[in-house]
Specification:
Blueprint: H1 6-15, H2 17-22, E1 28-30, E2 36-38, E3 43-46, H3 62-79, E4 86-90, E5 94-99, H4 104-112, E6 117-125, H5 132-136, E7 151-154, E8 160-169, E9 173-179, E10 187-193, H6 195-208, E11 218-222, E12 225-228, E13 240-247, H7 249-261, E14 268-276, E15 285-292
Antiparallel strand pairs: 1-2, 3-13, 4-5, 5-15, 6-8, 6-11, 7-8, 9-10, 10-13, 11-12, 14-15
Helix pairs in contact: 1-4, 1-7, 3-4, 3-7
Length: about 300
């Protein structure tokens, strides 16, 4: 396997981690209870959790959502190792990111990606379907990712999935940690649910275990792409989900940082990306201008 420079690793971590996350054990994987199942990607669920995320019944203002987005972008940059980065709001809907780096596209990808994480039932897998809309839809076609509706999605190998509504939202993930499991050799990312998320997950798996294939699977969906779709063989009362793949340490840590920072509450378009040449002994600087989409 080729060796990669630190720069290449960083670029892969920032630009390619969604692909790395879904390219997890293509031929063999584990069920949620650890039993190998051919052709199913890996996701293991273990361990209790009692942490609860605070909730609010008051809708946040656009200004509050912009401020929250800027804070999330700053945390992502810090976690990815970009020292000296700054994130500033300009006007009502613009954010300007300034980073001492020449990796302009990698920086733009990191700060602009929404990172929406959800857990959904699997209804159908593959091309043939009684649902004509799904049968005619292809990977790469536009999709509508609405939490209380069915979702058409694909994984990194262009396998099609017809998925049910969200049964656990990524907002219920209170922590994400990159580590090498005991006895393992590769990095993975462990997600920890809050108490509500753990209860919702237990209820969902209690239902899924009674179903036949492929309705006994659930999908972990990140930004509209299926990360993994494990088989459930028993009710899972723990509160952690584990995403495994061929991660480098940098990729796993960047993925964990993005997920633990949470999804951006707004969607952003990248208006411009530029690199300012270094002067004197300074470093080149990347400047990314982003504009929030109208809701």
């Amino acid at each position: 396997m080729p060796e990669y420079t630190e720069l290449t690793q960083r670029r892969r971590a920032l630009r390619k981690w969604p692909v790395a996350a879904v390219t997890v054990v293509a031929a063999w994987a584990m069920t949620a209870c650890g039993v190998p199942i051919p052709g199913v990607r890996t996701a293991e669920i273990t361990g209790p959790t009692t942490t609860e995320k605070p909730t609010s019944t008051t809708p946040a203002s656009h200004a509050d959502l912009m401020k929250q987005s800027a804070e999330i972008m700053q945390r992502r940059l810090t976690a990815a190792g970009y020292s000296g980065a700054s994130v500033a709001m300009q006007g009502d809907s613009q954010i300007v990111v300034t980073v001492p780096s020449t990796n302009s596209q990698a920086v733009a990808d990191l700060v602009s990606a929404q990172r929406q994480l959800d857990f959904r039932d699997v209804d159908e897998i593959g091309q043939s379907s009684n649902n004509s809309d799904f049968a005619n839809w292809n990977c790469g076609d536009p999709l509508s990712n609405i939490s209380d509706q069915m979702l058409f999605a694909c994984d990194s190998s262009d396998q099609k999935y017809l998925l049910g509504p969200v049964f656990v939202s990524g907002q219920r993930v209170v922590d994400a940690e990159a580590s090498i499991p005991q006895g393992g050799v590769a990095y993975n990312v462990t997600l920890t649910f809050d108490a509500t998320g753990a209860d919702e997950f237990a209820q969902a798996t209690a239902k899924l275990v009674t179903q036949v294939s492929p309705q006994n699977q659930f999908a972990i969906v990140l930004d509209g792409e299926v990360v993994s779709a494990p088989v459930v063989q028993s009710t899972i009362t723990g509160g952690q989900a584990q995403i495994t793949g061929s991660f480098t340490q940098q990729q796993a840590e960047t993925l964990a940082a993005s997920l633990s920072s949470g999804a951006l509450p707004l969607q952003f378009d990248v208006g411009s990306v530029s690199t300012i040449s270094a002067t004197g002994s300074g470093q080149p600087t990347t400047v990314v201008a982003l504009t929030a989409r109208a809701s």
